[in-house]
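cron nightly-structures :: item 1 of 1
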Amino acid sequence: MTPAALPRKHAAYRWAAIVAAPALFALAFAYVGGWLTPQRLTPKRLVDQFQANAGVYPGYRRNHAKGVCVAGYFQSNGQAAAYSVAQVFAPGQRTPVVGRFAIPGSNPYAPDSSIPIRSMALRFTQANGQQWRTGMNSMPVFPVATPQAFFAQLQAQQPDPATGKPDPAKLAAFFAAHPETAAFRAWAKTAKPSASFATDSYWSLDAFEFVGADGAKHAVRWQMVPEATDTAPAPAGQADYLDADLRQRLAQGPQRWKLMVTLANPGDPTDDATKTWPAERTTLDAGTLVIESEQAQASGPCRDINYDPTVLPHGIEISDDPLLPARSAAYADSYLRRTSEEAHLPGTARTHASAQPEAAR
């Protein structure tokens, strides 16, 4: 090779590198977006299925669409500090909380009695600025263990256009193919819609890890146990009673829950939310959640919060549960859709003329 040819060869390499960089970026973008493997489960496919099942309600969360904001604080008693260095568990620490009660589903106008499950989402903001976000449900186990099975469950629940209801044959086939749903189905057989958000217990379902001062990790699950114990039946013939009940209770005083943290033993499953841990496991009373006020979700402080359960402070980490990263990704997709709709960005869904926009609620 002549000396004059060397610069030309090097220039060709540089041009190849310049062209390859955006091509690789585009390839990675297409992979993440699921365009290269259309059957791969992506956050978009999960959220699209929620919309296929219940329709699109612009500006609303794609699941747990009907809810109410709440605010208060968490008062630590210090018992969990031996297992986690998270500031929220320091003895005597009071941490402000912004939360949200809701019912599952994508329809923000669904009757409160349409499902026996209620949810509690919380954002703890520590004095050091770190946040702990958690989303809990009023059931002791989740139906399935993987994102793929959850997607299959949503597909099986999609209403048949001819009846407007899920096809019983498809549901039966799904449950036959997923025996891990047995514990949830046993709970659901006897569960009834409660009359109040304030009288329900809420489980984390997924496992997490507490990290102590010595770096030791402890697998945990937690449960919010209510102080209110009255169990009046849900009022008949009323579609919207949970918000009014909560407002009435808070007018009489704050509502309280104990944060109970269960420590796993070695070998207890941390990657399967369909399985409970044995009842004899050590459980700590970590402190008291105090809810003092409620606000409409359209204008309240919870409106712009994505209750991503993987947002955690130092001292709490995610476990190997595959549902956690899937929840995080799906929540982000839902958040992007509803906030884009509220901003009226081009290409986003618009509020139907007959629908009640969230901003007016």
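cron nightly-structures :: done
The radius of gyration is 23 Å.
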